[in-house]
Q: What sequence folds into this?
């Protein structure tokens, strides 16, 4: 065998049925995806704000085009690789929503020189100075937004820290461009019910609106006021003063989102198709070829009221089996069993039969795969194969 | 920007220093890797058995060639994608060590037709019949090994189940090829000290030797008797009756292996290079651009005596900071902090400074990356960039 007779990089093929696909693989229910997008878009329309979808969950131009209001954007990305890939596919309006490292500004400058309005975020004076310096070097004004801390979960300036906020704002206005303020209520993923989510959403709104007012009262510009997380986007009642909402995982949803009540299990559009490869009947186990390499190591439901193991098991049509989960996983093996304490009986599956597994966390599970196999309709016919990418 | 002026698939470039690499990225200390390989090879030489390295950790032909005793193998793989990729690079002797799904036999047959001695494993009569049927259809004899259960952790036939073992053996001998028996002491990853590991190693040995004797006494062939896990491979005292040992993660080692005493922290050859992007000084946090997307969601040390969070933090030269870990991680953010309860002080790192993070689980962390940046010597100069692959 030489490279002329055997090419391991054969392009991804499409198949017409789930039975014909190689397993494990990623299945995307496009009907559910469309419904999830329509639902959030209608909600934000009624609140009078625009959606700047986060593309870090999908990392696919085919999904991105369905998420964005126009082929040019707006959009949010989590890596410069996403910015470069989506730019190559025509997206022109993006926020790179991870605090900028000075060494990454060369790639930002390169994208801006190609006509992409790529905006960076930051929360320190050092970063603002680095953005100003890179702007001077390139003879442009790189736009940056100040990240605001609304709940203490990770990064950002607290609005009460006036001095820091103004020093960053002034540094950017003088040497670069102050595009606005942004925040993310990471704590909203902890759940707590609708009332808690209303509070998280209001905490997001009030933090950025307060920061924007502070900047403006000092004579600094602040055109964009951006908030966003999937839970708060689905619970906000009033977004006065906010200009846009960022959200990402809602496009597919997952068991973590269902566990905190942001969606129902039958809204989850992503699953991993797996094949049964064995049984340990005396232990009540079914063994599949879908281990953590295809499901991810994410155990996001482990601290929720209902622990879904490594995922909830469905038949090939996507109908859930009551209380049947991937109880444990090795690299390329999944162990399907009844949820501890449940009286559910294992489905009667034979070697070669197929199941679909709903993921704990769509961002993490999708990242383990190179493509989405897209199904639609009652038949769950596979109508397309959409590539996705990874890396930085 | 069009595709003529911007190509997102630019080949991976090499750099000459760790300071010049884009972050996050994967760093491989080739000196440590070489030492780990030499150590296990010497050990198995003294026990009189050959090494069939598992390539699922590395998924890189450059690493595989250093692991294998010859360019043709032998080797072990966990996916047919690995078998196909390594076959394209000249490997000719492989065990696909995950129970075979009947629908995958077409790809096995195709590889065998190209001159690759690819062996499958199975533990049910149904699978043996499917292998016999595929053999008849292709006019060949597909070799299969019977997976033996030595510790109840996952798959396999228990040797005491004589009837099942013999029925599988007879089905394969009549319609395909019975290549031998194999087992894997998954429970050995739980640790328990040297004495426990000696017992796990002996449990592996005695289970397959007993199964081999049973098959042979029934007049069936059993040329290969295969055991393997990284912990047992480093603790076995006597491998009488065993013909080969499979092990994989030892090539890089990781914090889980260090936590159960199979290696020292300074044997770990894999790390993720990260850049500081912020601080929350009042919380004692340093924020980096290395979140779970680059580290993986693996929390394998969470149940060990020392919980390493999402990884142990080192300076750019790979020297560990005492008790400084990645305490939490989001998709593209890592939060560095002192280990809970420790009096360690955070290192004085500024925005733009770099650190290296030792992973909980090398297989999972490596899988998040497309290449290894290879360093060697006191200078940690980057001497190569070795591509790696994923998928099935």
A:
């Amino acid at each position: 065998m030489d490279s002329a007779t055997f090419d391991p990089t054969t392009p991804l093929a499409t198949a017409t049925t789930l039975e014909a696909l190689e397993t494990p693989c990623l299945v995307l229910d496009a009907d559910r995806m469309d419904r999830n997008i329509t639902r959030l878009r209608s909600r934000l329309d009624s609140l009078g704000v625009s959606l700047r979808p986060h593309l870090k969950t999908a990392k696919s131009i085919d999904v991105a085009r369905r998420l964005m209001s126009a082929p040019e954007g707006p959009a949010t990305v989590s890596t410069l690789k996403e910015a470069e890939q989506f730019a190559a596919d025509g997206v022109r309006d993006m926020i790179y929503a991870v605090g900028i490292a000075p060494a990454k500004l060369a790639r930002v400058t390169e994208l801006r020189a190609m006509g992409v309005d790529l905006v960076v975020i930051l929360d320190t004076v050092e970063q603002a100075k680095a953005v100003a310096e890179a702007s001077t070097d390139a003879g442009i004004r790189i736009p940056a937004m100040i990240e605001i801390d609304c709940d203490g979960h990770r990064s950002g300036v607290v609005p009460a820290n006036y001095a820091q906020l103004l020093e960053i704002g002034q540094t950017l206005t003088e040497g670069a461009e102050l595009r606005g303020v942004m925040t993310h209520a990471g704590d909203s993923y902890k759940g707590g019910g609708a009332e808690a989510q209303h509070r998280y959403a209001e905490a997001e709104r009030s933090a950025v609106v307060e920061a924007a007012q502070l900047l403006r009262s000092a004579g600094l510009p602040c055109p964009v006021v951006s908030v966003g997380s999937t839970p708060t986007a689905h619970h906000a009642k009033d977004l006065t003063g906010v200009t846009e909402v960022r959200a990402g995982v809602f496009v597919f949803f997952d068991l973590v989102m269902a566990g905190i009540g942001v969606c129902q299990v039958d809204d989850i559009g992503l699953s991993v198709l797996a094949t049964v490869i064995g049984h340990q009947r005396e232990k009540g186990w079914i063994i599949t070829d879908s281990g953590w390499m295809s499901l991810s190591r994410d155990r996001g439901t482990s601290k929720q009221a209902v622990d879904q193991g490594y995922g909830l098991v469905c038949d090939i049509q996507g109908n859930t089996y009551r209380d049947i989960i991937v109880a444990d996983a090795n690299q390329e093996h999944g162990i399907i069993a009844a949820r501890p304490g449940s009286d559910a009986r294992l489905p009667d599956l034979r070697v070669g039969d197929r199941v679909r597994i709903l993921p704990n966390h769509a961002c993490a599970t999708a990242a383990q795969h190179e493509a989405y196999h897209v199904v639609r309709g009652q038949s769950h016919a596979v109508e397309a194969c959409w590539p996705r990418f990874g890396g930085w």
The domain at 31-250 of chain A is CATH 3.20.20.10 (TIM Barrel). Chain A is about 30% helix and 20% strand.
